[in-house]
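Give me the fold.
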Amino acid sequence: MKATYTDPMGNTLTSSFTASSTFFPWADEYINTTLFGEGTYLEAARAFFPGVNGQMGWVYENGADMSGYKYLVFKLDKVQKVNAAINIYPQNSIWGNCYSKPIGDATMVVIPLQEIEYTSGDAIGEPVNTANIMIVALYAGSGGVIDVSDAYLTNNDDYSPEGVSVRSPSISRRRKADGPVYNLQGMRVDRMTKGVYIQNGKKILVK
């Protein structure tokens, strides 16, 4: 993005910067821990503790239009042990129509948004209206943790995030001809390990 400002003396000042947005912010103020039960969320670890039969996650007060995307992808740091599921609601309440996807022993769950149908409520078997999603929640059937590493929408058929270039783990040191590399906290790094980085205004994913 580019911002331009002309001061009272007629001098034009221009600044360029990169802005990004996400449907799944990780700061604790964006995680509703009481959709059902009294859950706990640890922001630094992206660790969700919904409690027995509890639900917690993201609430979109004005609805989120996800209809332009093929896939919703959740990645976990490790296999969950709490009979977890991902629940999607078209209303601002967990009491009603819902699509639920069990996580099982997967560490990456891909939900094909253009194909999903309601699994509970009075619209079972009908297509989910992904143009107006109100809640995306994590459910746990027993006590314990759901360790999430990432969640995003994408149209890439390899399920990678959009606008992210993927590098091999062996490419861990930048070349001198490249620009400096920063982590997501804005700190410059000399060596890239597993994670997401910014270089020359672009995201780099190191697996």
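Confidence is low (pLDDT under 50) at residues 165-177.
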